From TrEMBL:
Membrane topology (UniProt): Single-pass type II membrane protein
UniProt keyword Membrane present: yes
GO BP annotations, alphabetical order: protein N-linked glycosylation
Record's protein name: alpha-1,6-mannosyl-glycoprotein 6-beta-N-acetylglucosaminyltransferase
Keywords associated with the record: Glycoprotein, Glycosyltransferase, Golgi apparatus, Membrane, Signal-anchor, Transferase, Transmembrane, Transmembrane helix
E.C. code: 2.4.1.155
GO cellular component: Golgi membrane
Organism, scientific name: Heterocephalus glaber (Naked mole rat)
Span of domain Glycosyltransferase family 18 catalytic: 177-770
Family classification: Belongs to the glycosyltransferase 18 family.
Catalytic reaction annotation: N(4)-{beta-D-GlcNAc-(1->2)-[beta-D-GlcNAc-(1->4)]-alpha-D-Man-(1->3)-[beta-D-GlcNAc-(1->2)-alpha-D-Man-(1->6)]-beta-D-Man-(1->4)-beta-D-GlcNAc-(1->4)-beta-D-GlcNAc}-L-asparaginyl-[protein] + UDP-N-acetyl-alpha-D-glucosamine = N(4)-{beta-D-GlcNAc-(1->2)-[beta-D-GlcNAc-(1->4)]-alpha-D-Man-(1->3)-[beta-D-GlcNAc-(1->2)-[beta-D-GlcNAc-(1->6)]-alpha-D-Man-(1->6)]-beta-D-Man-(1->4)-beta-D-GlcNAc-(1->4)-beta-D-GlcNAc}-L-asparaginyl-[protein] + UDP + H(+)
Compartments in which it is found: Golgi apparatus membrane
Gene: Mgat5b
């Protein structure tokens, strides 16, 4: 800003513009002319800086009103030139500008030494005015030339470009991020943004394409090495929240078990090369923006299952040797992703620096809100920790909306395998899991010798769980045979919901709770919470787990807890994994409303001797093995699903099994490149009407494998099963491929995201892909490592 005060002082404040050398020269013409004049008039010239504020040029003229009037006119001209320089800062160097500079000389050089003072002042002022006019003409000429090149093109390769330009004209001020990327309301700035920041318009031919297309070189790949010291991980996890304190204590307590598991897995894998991945772990449910309802309840008996799982995920990724960043706030997330300032409508300011992102539904929503178009570009790298799972019918936005499957948690259009569950209850998702503490042989023998045959511990730390109607009846029966213990949280007085005959220890720290389990014979559930880690911990410590059978099964149709969750799964007991994958003698599932059945189970349990038992997939080694396999083989950013090799060849890769009940991958057929699990493990059955593919595969001791659906999605598969198709149609339906009943109509799947092991109808016999699995590791096939 340039001003002339009434007392004759001219103030020039710094112009915050980045100018190239020539532009500085042009602006300097007027400035140094002014300085020359000041000294000619006997004036004083000085500069002063106040802290970090723009500097001030202070001149004081010792002349009369006439001189001050001329100087005021010159300051106006200089102010005009500063504005011109601001416009020039946005343009490239021009030969015309260089010619303008070469034609301009300091006024003092063109004046004879004998000229009068006022003539010299007028000549200098005229010269500055001529410069301003010349610059204005050049700017106008260049602007008109560029305007011809900044019209929205009609390019069939970029059909959305005209519409996006129209949107930018009307809405570019709606988010500050557009201005951050250089949008200023001109057509050129719209097209530059839409072609170089986003990708809706073709590149402008006059732009420096080398600069626009430059991408940072990828970092050289580093081989990951197993880690046994977790001290740096504890630092990465942060502090300040009770939830984080709980997670760090758990990780520290299990350090030796993680180290031992790493050594065992390293020997098992041998010389397999493993690239170190750059991984962001964003725990969305712990952010203040999501409400963080868990942290305040950690010390009050609140649910700990999610924090147990996240602690173990962090430990497993770190022990496997990958590079981690951990965030539990929105601000940290934005900083690590490179989110530009604004409301989240623009892409990231840089390519995503992470190979993988582990988050939850809260974090997924936060990323979608703040990553702009980059979310769609990079969502294939995201893994969503999802306790109860997300079925394909709920995940596909269009299908869910049209067929009534839309909920508050679904419709993300991810590959269903990107959702990772706490238990392996839906093969459509990936089983992530957690770990339970593993006992050595000495500890197991000590536990067996120290068990009290008549001691029971109730599964339930919150008072609300003890409000179950009818509990008095079966607790009275249990009290006849066993001493009942509880670990219900309370502050000052005993909760009235807990019967007087129950010995309540209050909320116990994890080590003390483990000691209680090691003494107890029975761990009994009241029907809630569903599928938590505690029953596995009890079984690992030598307890029998007794739970209620649900009739009818609980689901989103009849139970508030499941309402709104993106799954149609029916739960037949409090802990289906314990019932189906462990079972007797460690797990007993009975009808609590049948007093005779309940009492008979108690008597039988008291006579039953069990050893501590922990499924391999819930040990540290089992979890490391599983996550290693996922990181090595799951790639959801690759081209869409596997296709049949030689699909148009006469030789099909399938053969009918010798007993003519199912299809197998032919031994002489080539394996599908890039397919994981390997196609050699594929077995295909036609399910009975009304059976899900998950159940149909389990009936044969196998696991449904949704990644194999594309290989079966053909008329040829039905023919090889000796099922003639009177007609074949392609439709979008989560039960396809299937054979319609009655009749012989074969339906094939039109939308790959809807291939699903879940779902059944009495109208259809579903064509189901199954595979084998490793003992104690249901997530992996025999050849998956």
């Amino acid at each position: 800003m340039i001003t002339v005060n009434p007392d004759g002082k001219i103030m020039i404040r710094r112009c915050l513009v980045t100018l190239r050398p020539f532009r500085l020269f042009v602006l300097g013409i007027g400035f140094f002319t002014l300085c020359f004049l000041m000294t000619s008039l006997g004036g004083q010239f000085s500069t002063r800086r106040l802290g970090d504020s723009p500097f001030t040029i202070r001149t004081e003229v010792l002349g009369g009103p006439e001189s001050r009037g001329v100087l005021r006119k010159m300051s106006d001209l200089l102010e005009l030139m500063v504005k011109r320089m601001d416009m020039l800062a946005r343009l490239e160097n021009s030969s015309e500008l260089h010619r303008a500079a070469s034609d301009t000389h300091l006024a003092a050089d063109r004046l004879s030494p004998g000229a009068g003072l006022m003539e010299r002042i007028q000549a200098i002022a005229q010269n500055v005015s001529d410069i301003a006019v010349k610059v204005d003409q050049i700017l106008r000429h260049m602007s008109e030339g560029r305007q011809d090149q900044c019209e929205a093109p009609s390019d069939p390769k970029f059909p959305d470009c005209p519409g996006k330009v129209e949107w930018m004209r009307a809405r570019w001020t709606s988010d500050p991020c557009y201005a951050f990327f250089g949008v200023d309301g001109t057509e050129c700035s719209f097209l530059i943004y839409l072609s170089e920041v986003e990708w809706f318009c073709p590149p402008l031919p006059w732009r420096n394409q080398t600069r626009a297309q430059m991408a940072p070189k990828p970092l050289p790949r580093v081989q990951s090495v197993f880690r046994s010291n977790l001290s740096h991980l504890l630092e990465l996890m942060g502090s300040g929240k009770e939830s984080l304190i709980f997670m760090k204590k758990r990780t520290k307590r299990l350090t030796s078990q993680w180290a031992t598991a790493a050594q065992r897995l390293a020997r098992k894998l041998g010389d397999i090369q493993r690239d170190q991945k750059q991984i962001l772990v964003h725990i969305g449910f712990l952010t203040e923006e999501s409400g963080d309802v868990f942290s305040p309840r950690v010390l009050k008996g609140g649910p700990l299952g999610e924090m147990v799982q996240w602690a173990d995920i962090l430990a497993a990724l770190y022990v496997l040797g990958h590079s981690l960043r951990v965030t539990v706030s929105l601000k940290e997330l934005q900083s690590n992703l490179g989110v530009p300032p604004g409301r989240g409508n623009c892409p990231l300011t840089m390519p995503l620096p992470f190979d993988l992102i582990y988050t939850d539904y809260h974090g997924l929503q936060q990323m979608k809100q703040h990553m702009g178009l980059s979310f769609k570009k990079y969502r294939c790298r995201i893994r969503v920790i999802d306790t109860f799972g997300t079925e394909p019918a709920y995940n596909h936005e269009e299908y869910a909306t049209l067929h009534g499957y839309r909920t508050n948690w679904g419709y993300w259009n991810l590959n269903p395998k990107q959702f990772m569950t706490m238990f392996p209850h839906t093969p459509d998702n990936s089983f992530m899991g957690f770990v339970s503490e593993e006992l050595n042989e000495t500890e197991k023998q000590l536990i067996k010798g120290g068990k009290a045959s008549n001691m029971a511990v109730v599964y339930g730390k919150e008072t609300s769980i003890w409000k179950l109607q009818g509990k008095e009846k079966f607790l009275a029966i249990l009290n006849k045979y066993m001493e009942i213990h509880g670990t219900v949280y309370y502050e000052s007085q005993r909760p009235p919901e807990v019967p007087a005959f129950v010995k309540n220890h209050g909320l116990l720290p994890q080590p003390e709770f483990q000691q209680l389990l090691r003494k107890a014979k029975l761990f009994i559930g009241f029907g809630f919470p569903y599928e938590g880690p505690a029953p596995l911990e009890a079984i690992a410590n030598g307890c029998v787990f007794l739970q209620s059978r649900f009739s009818p099964p609980h689901s989103s149709l009849n139970h508030e807890f499941f309402r709104g969750k993106p799954t149609s799964r029916e739960v037949f007991s409090q802990h289906p994994y314990a019932e189906n994958f462990i079972g007797k003698p460690h797990v007993w599932t009975v009808d609590y409303n049948n007093s005779e059945e309940f009492e008979a189970a108690i008597k039988a349990i008291m006579k039953t001797q069990v050893d501590p038992y922990l499924p391999y997939e819930y040990t540290c080694q089992g979890m490391l093995e599983r996550i290693h396999a996922y990181i090595q083989h799951q790639d959801f950013c690759a081209a869409p699903g596997p296709t049949l090799p030689g699909a148009h060849a006469s030789q099909s890769p399938f053969v009918l099994a010798p007993n003519a009940t199912h299809l197998e991958w032919a031994r002489n057929a080539s394996l599908a490149p890039g397919a994981w699990p390997p196609t050699r493990s594929l077995r295909a059955w036609l399910a009975a009407p009304g059976r899900t593919c998950s159940d149909a595969c389990l009936d044969h001791g196998l696991i449904c494998e949704p990644s194999f659906f594309p290989f079966l999605n053909s008329r040829d598969a039905f023919l090889k099963l000796q099922v003639p198709c009177d007609s074949t149609e392609w439709e979008m339906h989560h039960l396809y491929p299937a054979l319609a009943q009655p009749g012989q109509e074969c339906y094939l799947q039109k939308e790959p995201l809807l291939f699903s092991c879940a779902g059944a109808s009495t109208k259809y016999q579903r064509l189901c892909p199954c595979r084998d699995f490793r003992k104690g590791q249901v997530a992996l096939c025999q050849g998956c490592l």
